[in-house]
Amino acid sequence: MRRLLVAIAVLLTSAAVGVGLGYAPDRSVASLKAEFAPPPSQFIDVDGMQVHLRDEGVRDDPMPILLLHGTSASLHTWDGWVAALAPTRRVIRVDLPGFGLTGPNPSGDYAATSYVPHINRVLDRLGVARAVWVGNSFGGEVAWLAAVLAPERVGALILIDAAGYPFVPESIPLGFRLALDPNMAPIVRNLLPRFIVANSVRDTYGDPDKVMDGIIDLYYAMALREGNRQALIDRFAQGVAAHGAMSERIPDIRVPTLILWGSKDRLIPPQNAERFHADIKGSELTIFPGLGHIPHEEDPANTVARAIAFLATLPAKQVSIDEL
């Protein structure tokens, strides 16, 4: 892998010195808003950030659904789910700090545990006391951490290829490998050819042929949002050593939990789905054949259908902010 990274570094540097290919300056939020944040997008001030979110669907839902994306993704990864859920449910999705149009956290803190109080402050601003927390990958880790650290805010969990336990990946997306390497990171901050993002996204799908140009364009634009590349480097620097540090608390989770996983996830292996299922009492597990690390994006229709069936079994109870 080291030889591959060195070869890529040589390619990027040569391109930049030669004809300027690969040089990718930051893009301002203002330049991205028209395309990626039309209504119903909104921005609210939380923790010194203008948090990008969408709050859609019915307004009297007693248990709104909160959707949390994974590393280097954005709230757009949930488009297919929201189309199916919003006609009957209130659905809230956010760009997590360090990603999407929310961008870097001015505190520089990207520990997974710090995201839980941040998201709760976002929910406070929206008047939501308790929600069904749904998270993919890193967002899944934030979701189950909320069930451990702030259980009064979590009505149920849906964990989708969630991080949490130590794991040995079969494959790491190329962009992640570059950001993880301290020698490559300074290059990535300024040079980011589109092919690196394309390679990374395809690596997370069970069927790479499903990755259309529009999907790559979206991920590429979010990567170029000012400050996001440095935020990714900082999050990896802070999070790798601590990964799995709180996994011993997973058996403490006491809310209804659905675990969804792609059978062809090459980043977080399906064995981790079995670990969540064994550790969370009463949890349900569905593994989708042929899908990869982001199954809700790769096949929204089948994955959201399983989620809807699970949601239909949950008791609905309105909880006010004053009760907390």
Helical proportion, percent range = 25-40%
What's the alpha carbon Rg, rounded to whole Å?
A: 19 Å
Question: pLDDT under 50 segments (min length 5)?
Answer: 1-20, 318-324
Instruction: Based on the coordinates given, report the CATH architecture.
Output: 3-Layer(aba) Sandwich
Strand content: 5-15%
The first-level CATH class is given as Alpha Beta
Distance between the termini: 49 Å
Give a description of the structure.
The chain is an alpha/beta fold. It has a single domain (27-163, 172-315), classed as Rossmann fold (3-Layer(aba) Sandwich), CATH 3.40.50.1820. Helix content is 40%, strand content 15%. The protein contains 13 helices and 8 strands. The chain has helices at residues 2-18, 29-36, 79-85, 112-125, 138-149, 174-180, 185-188, 194-204, 213-224, 228-239, 271-279, 295-298, 300-311; strands spanning 41-46, 49-57, 65-68, 90-94, 131-136, 154-160, 257-262, 284-288. An 8-stranded mixed beta sheet has the order 1-2-4-3-5-6-7-8, with helices on both faces. A hairpin with a 2-residue loop joins strand 1 (41-46) and strand 2. The radius of gyration is 19 Å and the shape is globular. Residues 1-20 and 318-324 have low confidence and may be disordered.
Please sum up the structure shown.
The chain is 40% helix and 15% strand.
